[in-house]
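Hello,

I think I submitted the 2-(butylsulfanyl)adenosine job twice by accident. Can you confirm which output corresponds to this input? Input:
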Amino acid sequence: MDAKKRIETLIEILNEASKRYYVLDDPTITDQEYDKYLRELITLEEKYPEYNYPDSPTKRVGGEAVDKFNKVIHKTPMLSLSNVFNEDEIREFDERIKKEGIKPQYVCEQKIDGLSISLIYQNGLLVQGITRGDGLTGEDVTNNVKTIKSIPLKLNENIDVEVRGEVFMHKKTLAKLNQEREKENLPALANVRNAAAGSLRQLDSKIAAERELDAFIYYLMEPEKFGIKTHYEAINYLKKLGFKTMEDTRLVENVDGILKYIQKETLKRDKLTYEIDGVVMKHNIFREQQEIGYTAKYPKWATAYKFPAEEVLTKLKDIIFTVGRTGRITPNAVLEPVILMGSTISRATLHNADYVISKNLKIGDIVSIKKAGDVIPAVTGAIIERRKGDEKDFQMISNCPMCDTPLVKKEGQVDYFCPNETCPARNINSLIHYVSRDAMNIEGLGDEIVEELYNLGFVKRIPDFYELKNKKEQLLEFDGYGEQSINKILENIEASKQSGLARVLYAIGIPGIGSKTAKVLAHRFGNIDFLMKESIEDLVNIPDIGETLASNVYNYFLEHKDFIEELKSIGISMNEIGSERKQNDLITNKKFVITGTIDGYSRNEIKEVLESYDGIVSESVSKNTDIVIVGENPGSKYDKAVSLNIEIWNEEKLKEVFANLQ
Ligand code: IVH
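Support: Only one job matched these inputs. Its output is below.
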């Protein structure tokens, strides 16, 4: 076969495969086959450079780096969109269109979080890709655009056309990129938009190629040239030409339709592989779009509903350090106040020095703030492009900011600690922890009051809380404490003595023991004396307790025997409330396996009942199993139980046992 023909055939096969994969998400050939054809094409093109086709996939790998991008004036300015943030504003937008005597018909689309691009095709071939720039003038990034696999180098029709759309980076690509950057000690890119923008503006198109950008096309210029009358038709035509268009495009008749669309997209948002930051609604009929008109910046026939911001930019004014109750030093961001999802944020944790260093944060940076899990604001990164040069490097401190003791860092750990047991910051925070809601839950003793009691010398150690009742007169001398409120606080302090062992174990601050583990221990031992007698080996055998926790618990009691005695003498209960264990001869200490379904009970419910009587439920039948509970449609566990001659309870028997429980 002659080389020219073969090159043409290979280009066709590869471009079709690429389209099936990147545009239609419906691959037809394997990666190996693709690579095989591509290698063949590369070899042939090297051998026969005279057959140089502009739509060859070999044009996508990136070429020579450039010094700078050429500026290009857009033939038609690239407009932006006005924003709306709530239902009222959507209704106002709708009313304005109706006022023009037009019956609205909206195309709803996802608002892709990326950057807009203009693509120019001549005779069906991609000749230029231009960024939006300031809307009037953009930059020629053709070489980089060609590396985006979902952008066709050649259209299905040999036409002259300009289209516009959004270039973006998938969430997974950003995660992967940031992982690689971390390995190379480079700062993480803050979000998909910055990452996409940075990638599209790489002077070296080989780097752009590695960034795996993607693009949705949503705008056809001069549609009348193709006899197209509506936006919806235009989208279909773009699809026909070979572009990747957005899937969830819907035509709706009124505001209720828009609201439903927004609701649906809001729910879908997290599941998408790319980020959307809102929904765009556009009046469908082109002729009427012209009647509705434009402002200098945006069309009046379209608008963007923006989701409540989950990420905002603000200035990192300073980094300050706080000392936790264990002595751990935490760097905190002091931010220029910003509103994020309805609340004003001026502080955010920076976790530890390594975190600050890995994000390459400098004081004075513009940083991006996100709500992690929608609760705690986190600084996700600095916007490097906005540096002015006067930002200050982060410096980890070497001494405790409260007591000036030199900080220590254990090998292999990321945190620095103040080792001073009498460090005021550590003590105040231990006291605050002791009275907090999940600990002894002493109402009326807020953080500030505890700090003040500490500073005034009333409470230096936990036992001092219980001495306050003898200092009532002195307390009353201080501003802000009325007799009634003091009485209430003192009452609550007394009542806290009966909080029970789980709360005590959490409140005293054994390293690593959270309130859940404290409950496990309290439930198991019922009384602190039993727990204090345990060896490390015994402790490790308890479910949920690993080696570190076991030795923490053991060492804590070794070092704090006197302290525990002191708490006991004050009258603080060291028993678990309601800890009398429920017992049942048929269940307690027996090993159960459940198979099949039991009418009226889920497997978990059965498990919970059995465990509340200290029955042990496991997944597989062995000779150690005592009883197998067999419901309807049992599995092979039933056969195994029979072959091992293990006692079997059917549904009737189980219900009878449960009915007789105390
Ligand atoms: S239409 C004349 N549709 O949002 C109308 N824009 O905030 C031009 N964007 O500059 C834009 N998704 O970069 C349109 N489905 C969508 C969009 C979209 C994202 C971007 C675009 C625009 C910006 C305005």
